[in-house]
Amino acid sequence: MHRVGSASNGNNSTRPRKEKRLTYVLNDSDDSKHCAGINCLALLMSAASDGSDYLFTGSRDGRLKRWALGVDRATCLATFESHVDWVNDAVLVGDSTLVSCSSDTTLKTWNALSFGTCTRTLRQHSDYVTCLAAAEKNNNTVASGGLGGEVFIWDIEAALAPSKCNDAMVDESSNGINGSGNLLPLTSLRTINSSDNMSMHTTQTQGYVPISAKGHKDSVYALTMNESGTILVSGGTEKVVRVWDARSGSKTLKLRGHTDNIRALLLDSSGRYCLSGSSDSMIRLWDIGQQRCVHSYAVHTDSVWALASTPTFSHVYSGGRDFSLYLTDLQTRESSLLCTGEHPILQLALHDDSIWVASTDSSVHRWPAEGCDPQKIFQRGNSFLAGNLSFSRARVSPEGSTPVPVYKEPTLTILGTPAIVQHEVLSNKRHVLTKDASGSVKLWEITKGIVVEDYGKVSFEEKKEELFEMVSIPAWFTVDTRLGSLSVHLDTPQCFSAEMYSADLNIVGKPEDDKVNLARETLKGLLAHWLRKRKQRMGSPAPANGELLSGKETASRSSTHSRIEVDGSSENDAMVYPPFEFSVTSPPSIITEGTHGGPWRKKITDLDGTKDEKDFPWWCLDCVLNNRLPPRENTKCSFYLQPCEGSSVQILTQGKLSAPRILRIHKVVNYVIEKMVLDKPLDSLSAEGSIAPGLTGSQSQHQAVGDGSFRSGFQPWQKLRPSIEILCYNQVLSPEMSLATVRAYVWKKSDDLVLNYRLVQGR
Amino acid sequence: MGAAGSKLEKALGDQFPEGERYFGLENFGNTCYCNSVLQALYFCVPFREQLLEYYANNKSIADAEENLLTCLADLFSQISSQKKKTGVIAPKRFVQRLKKQNELFRSYMHQDAHEFLNFLLNELVDILEKEAQSAKNDQETSPPSEKAANGPKNGLANGAKKEPLVTWVHKNFQGILTNETRCLRCETVTARDETFFDLSLDIEQNSSITSCLKNFSSTETLNAEDKFFCDKCCSLQEAQKRMKIKKPPHILVIHLKRFKYIEQLGRYKKLSYRVVFPLELKLSDTAENSDIEYSLFAVVVHVGSGPNHGHYVSLVKSHNHWLFFDDENVEMIDESAVQTFFGSSQEYSSNTDHGYILFYESIGSGNRN
């Protein structure tokens, strides 16, 4: 047993990161689908009678999508991709502006009817932005709330207004035209706003600053605004509802009553009545004029996370953690269970006689709702009176039992790809095994970004054990699944620690001992499209100056690093080897940030060359443009080579030896044989073989051995070639094991490895 | 010495409890940390009775190998079997075994009573578990004929052994804490249980045990740079963390953190804060939300201005009398005198006698195992 000591509170601590990281997000084959829970919905009704209605969905996969809604189908028309973390809320402003907020601490404005044009990124929040509110009849006012109690009120028109002196906090991430004013031909149909011509290079502080509504002591999780944009209501982990003057940001009043966090808020059009949903499972109706709670409704059995009301504010639709959607008459307190799903409900959007339901699942469902005449639902029977205390619902129900849902099936489903919920990096450090929310187990190759094996619904643990390989590769990347898919993170210098023989990757035309750096080749694969576009753009004289500037910057940066290795020629290294070619049909997205402008996300096929060098971390450019890698200390493995006890074979060695950690045991065998047969001095071997003496204070350079000379060396002594085996801890080692594998699985110590050799017995 | 004992006997007179013994313990060079804890444990009546029962059952076997458990049992047996009602006993054998077992207690430096208590309880548990394990092994290797005869018992024994072993030390002192973390996004509560033999409480000036326990269980928000990684959300989220007592122990031992490391001084400073510890304690913040009542029966008191100086004494309640044990000396004190050991309201006070380890026994039979 563990020793039982005093129990006391402990604290966690986090470590700061030094250099910017580069992340790539692997996409499944179907890019028209979300692959994580849907946090928010926004409906855009068509003005024309024959026009299409649009639904906007914001997801935990970091993206928003626009769907054209038909009677029996929904078509994905656009993907809005620029956020680098969860999209938490989205609202429509005016006729054509979509505003989203994210856990990446930003708000973004988009051209709602474009194919993904981001018009502005607004940085004012210091932590996750959780919620937005828009005034229906005021085309410009949007409020945002987030962690840390931050609430800001934005004038979107002012925030988007062209200005020569924009703040550095406001950046441009649109496609098409860059700040320098150079016009490039567009390869796809995109709508360009005039604001795309913003300059990004000014550092003046003058610029738009939103109104700050100060007063929340804790995080804000819900916001709502009245039609004219004069009243703002917010709630969160403080457990109170706060009311603000939206024009000045000043506090108006505080409403108490909920016993747990506020998670959803709704205001009627005049701003007189407010509905709140809480983690205490209650819905409350507040009269803001009278500053009191008029009604409380106990219909849910768990937290209430989503609210939607009929246009006349006579009925409320509510959903939450109990997977259930309820309809409640605010006056009579009559309530009905409309439907029950399989996931907690996150948001609702009423659409004529239907309601869209978003949940932690990646699919969105449309259910009948009778929004124009809710009484029809109560006439179907099975309604009950909502109590005003939690858990009292059963007592007032006529049957005394749980309600039966009015509807069994949704009328339409927008399917999503199930999110990845479990993952394991395999020991070869190139494959990741995943399980998704539907139970499917897949094997991904992260240097190509594709699924190489789909095992279906099998046991994840069994498959993991089945796929185990006894190999030891440094951990050159980390993985997380917060976006519902695999996000692969590369950090310098750790990511450059892994090498493999080209032969093992089936790269043809290379010498036997040629090695590739996994991170370098992956970066070249990721940036191949951008490099091609950049080369095309470099043909014009104007970017030449930029190139020179970039070169200077890189040179000054590299001067701070000593002993930088330069491998091969630039022409040769520009080639992307087949194991590192990323798919063009489902390309990954890159998430990173450069020296300015903040983090961004973009598909590798959308990197059209206009992205400046300043937008990438310097170490990535150093790698793919200048073939420079940071100093790496762990690519070598030191070891001692000794005869087995009692062995008749003996060669003289010069103490400690050093070799690449990926060196195979059969190379050590060859080394011993050469020493025995050729009886050459040790010094001359370093020029020929892969093994070199480990001299103090320096690491010898690896030199490729010529196959021809090696084989010719064997020819005269073929008859006399003895059979040698290598052991560690009296265990005979397989010739295919690498030194790193022996160290990890046989030696298992931090000391220098000790290998023994002997003649194969039985000869 | 004899005079003091006689004095105590006279003071109690006819009220001297039947069968009880009040013996001081000799100091072998700064062993008051040991003596004070031993007195508190001796007057933890359920613990004493079970230890003496263990000693009676294992006396012949125990002679084979000496350990801290046998030495402690031997010491308690010596005290309880004395002809005299008062006097002094030398815990020489126990102290020698203690110094042999743990290097920390080998020097003649002053030691921390709480460290000693922790070491002792865990050592007793280790010994009992090893004994149970070896007994189990003996059972499995018995001859076939005997095994056939013992079949049903053996099967039962095997079944009983599947769960972690619960010794009588656990039954007296062990409670369970639960660490609950609630993600504020998906509101999933993650609970992690943790066993304890005592609670270490942070203290504040002019506070009480009830308020210190409340602080111990208070909700802490994980936010900003210290977010919680939620397995359900697969990401960092705000969360609320709270500690609750899931299973209260029969004997609740409370350690007041009176020694605080001062970075600038490079050493520990004693916090002489006044912390009121009641004679009756009600635990209200438990996971089961049922009130548990405890009664104070012993206090280990630290005397002095710093952790490496000074002295330890014990206050013990026995048969409704309060006794003061100071190594060899045993005196009777008024119950009202217990509050003089709460601590000082002023920072520089002449009073340096402060309650350090509190021993409460639960009232009522609900918690007995």
UniProtKB/TrEMBL annotation, chain A:
<keyword id="KW-0853">WD repeat</keyword>
<feature type="repeat" description="WD">
    <location>
        <begin position="213"/>
        <end position="254"/>
    </location>
</feature>
<feature type="region of interest" description="Disordered">
    <location>
        <begin position="537"/>
        <end position="572"/>
    </location>
</feature>
<feature type="repeat" description="WD">
    <location>
        <begin position="255"/>
        <end position="296"/>
    </location>
</feature>
<dbReference type="InterPro" id="IPR020472">
    <property type="entry name" value="WD40_PAC1"/>
</dbReference>
<dbReference type="Pfam" id="PF11816">
    <property type="entry name" value="DUF3337"/>
</dbReference>
<dbReference type="InterPro" id="IPR019775">
    <property type="entry name" value="WD40_repeat_CS"/>
</dbReference>
<keyword id="KW-0677">Repeat</keyword>
<dbReference type="GO" id="GO:0000724">
    <property type="term" value="P:double-strand break repair via homologous recombination"/>
</dbReference>
<dbReference type="InterPro" id="IPR015943">
    <property type="entry name" value="WD40/YVTN_repeat-like_dom_sf"/>
</dbReference>
<dbReference type="GO" id="GO:0043130">
    <property type="term" value="F:ubiquitin binding"/>
</dbReference>
<dbReference type="Pfam" id="PF00400">
    <property type="entry name" value="WD40"/>
</dbReference>
<dbReference type="InterPro" id="IPR036322">
    <property type="entry name" value="WD40_repeat_dom_sf"/>
</dbReference>
<comment type="similarity">
    <text>Belongs to the WD repeat WDR48 family.</text>
</comment>
<dbReference type="InterPro" id="IPR001680">
    <property type="entry name" value="WD40_rpt"/>
</dbReference>
<feature type="repeat" description="WD">
    <location>
        <begin position="122"/>
        <end position="157"/>
    </location>
</feature>
<dbReference type="InterPro" id="IPR051246">
    <property type="entry name" value="WDR48"/>
</dbReference>
<dbReference type="InterPro" id="IPR021772">
    <property type="entry name" value="WDR48/Bun107"/>
</dbReference>
<protein>
    <submittedName>
        <fullName>Uncharacterized protein</fullName>
    </submittedName>
</protein>
UniProtKB/TrEMBL annotation, chain B:
<dbReference type="InterPro" id="IPR001394">
    <property type="entry name" value="Peptidase_C19_UCH"/>
</dbReference>
<keyword id="KW-0539">Nucleus</keyword>
<dbReference type="InterPro" id="IPR028889">
    <property type="entry name" value="USP"/>
</dbReference>
<keyword id="KW-0449">Lipoprotein</keyword>
<feature type="region of interest" description="Disordered">
    <location>
        <begin position="132"/>
        <end position="159"/>
    </location>
</feature>
<keyword id="KW-0833">Ubl conjugation pathway</keyword>
<keyword id="KW-0519">Myristate</keyword>
<comment type="function">
    <text>Recognizes and hydrolyzes the peptide bond at the C-terminal Gly of ubiquitin. Involved in the processing of poly-ubiquitin precursors as well as that of ubiquitinated proteins. Required for the correct development of pollen.</text>
</comment>
<dbReference type="InterPro" id="IPR018200">
    <property type="entry name" value="USP_CS"/>
</dbReference>
<feature type="domain" description="USP">
    <location>
        <begin position="23"/>
        <end position="363"/>
    </location>
</feature>
<dbReference type="GO" id="GO:0005829">
    <property type="term" value="C:cytosol"/>
</dbReference>
<dbReference type="GO" id="GO:0005634">
    <property type="term" value="C:nucleus"/>
</dbReference>
<keyword id="KW-0378">Hydrolase</keyword>
<dbReference type="GO" id="GO:0006508">
    <property type="term" value="P:proteolysis"/>
</dbReference>
<keyword id="KW-0645">Protease</keyword>
<dbReference type="InterPro" id="IPR050164">
    <property type="entry name" value="Peptidase_C19"/>
</dbReference>
<dbReference type="Pfam" id="PF00443">
    <property type="entry name" value="UCH"/>
</dbReference>
<protein>
    <recommendedName>
        <fullName>ubiquitinyl hydrolase 1</fullName>
        <ecNumber>3.4.19.12</ecNumber>
    </recommendedName>
</protein>
<comment type="similarity">
    <text>Belongs to the peptidase C19 family.</text>
</comment>
<dbReference type="GO" id="GO:0004843">
    <property type="term" value="F:cysteine-type deubiquitinase activity"/>
</dbReference>
<dbReference type="InterPro" id="IPR038765">
    <property type="entry name" value="Papain-like_cys_pep_sf"/>
</dbReference>
<dbReference type="GO" id="GO:0016579">
    <property type="term" value="P:protein deubiquitination"/>
</dbReference>
